[in-house]
Amino acid sequence: MPVPLAPLKMCPSTQDQRARTRDQIPLAFIVLIAVLSISCAGERMYRVSDRSAYLNRIPPERKYVVLEKSHFKEPMDIDGIIKALHDRNMTAQATNFDWSDYEFTFMLAVENILKKEFEAARNQLTLLSDADFDWQVKLLEIDCARELGQAVDVLKEYQMVYDSAQNPIVKELAKTRYRIYKYGK
Amino acid sequence: MSKKPITLGYLSQSVPNVNSRQVAISVDRPQNSSAMPPAPVADVVGSGVTPAIIYTGWRNDFYCTMGRSQIKDDPSDFVYNAFLTEAKRSASFGIDSTSDLRLQMDIQALEVKGPYRNTGFFFYLFFFAVWGTTDFMGPSAATCSIKYTLMSGERKLTEKVITTRSALDPLQLHEQMDPTLLRGTYSVVMGEQLSDAVRMNIEQGINATEGGLQAL
Lengths: 185, 216
Fold this sequence. Notes:
The structure holds two protein chains of two kinds.
Chain A: E1 22-27, H1 30-41, E2 46-50, H2 51-55, E3 63-67, H3 78-86, H4 90-93, H5 101-114, H6 118-125, H7 132-147, H8 154-164, H9 168-182
Parallel strand pairs in A: 2-3
Chain B: E1 24-27, E2 31-32, E3 41-51, E4 55-65, H1 75-90, E5 94-95, E6 101-125, E7 128-137, E8 141-152, E9 155-166, E10 171-176, H2 179-214
Parallel strand pairs in B: 1-5, 1-6, 2-6
Antiparallel strand pairs in B: 3-4, 4-6, 6-7, 6-8, 8-9
Helix pairs in contact in B: 1-2
């Protein structure tokens, strides 16, 4: 029979490695739980979502691309685009959508990032303006540069996106990416 | 709590100032008189055991305080650089180390505290037994208090103590989690709260300095 835990004298991290946790855990920052979990989660860091799915996301936190109707010249089936991206067959389904050139280029870049083909993604992103898709092009360029091991002044770059973007969701994306960077990813 | 040090760095959220700056001040490196403990502290604030014939339960309550060793940055250097960065970004005054107008800062409080609870039970009947432990944490709260003193030569123009707090309501997660990971998460939460409290304090410090300069 296990002996009840003795009161800890010092930091709890040094005590009782036997304990297993099955929990309902009260937390202060749900976002930050996520940030720490990332280091364990590892895979599938990048996600694409629409506005409502992003606002209702659950931990662990990821590097999101958020698609909104205002990003497209013509009305688009955003759910269909997101599904095609997550299925990694955007090229095959390209004819299902009425793209402009820059929209299609951006989608190919996002798909390449989801496929972890960062060199190809970066080449596609260079064809676009940093400010396209509410500055998410610039965010993804920073992601690609970091994934490719290039030196990036992370604080300066994310600060620039935060200041330039008008969309509060993109400001949140920049803050979250900076937090993810701070905690080691 | 995790002993891995974390940085207080943050993205500025103020509105950049694009207007010209008529006045310039010099800024002294802040004095740090806060009483942050050198290492994390977990004070036992309560504990109990419920012994019964077929059931035993226990509970340990701690009150955790973040330690200096958990912060990667030197607080004085961080506040100094954060103030200069914020001033260059959003202030209506400039920075000139030769200016007769001088700002002194004293970091009076820099702390994060919050509760942590460990509970467990053991239930048995004949040859069958069930047991488990549950750890709870938060909500923690960060406090940053800095005294801003604006001097003109040896004459004190204004003095103001600004105290900012960062705390959010606790949320619940239904998730399997290792206690070590949980404690690491707690450190991250505390670090982010402190970072947020410092950011707010610096922004208000810029406003207070601007107010002092307008009184000239």
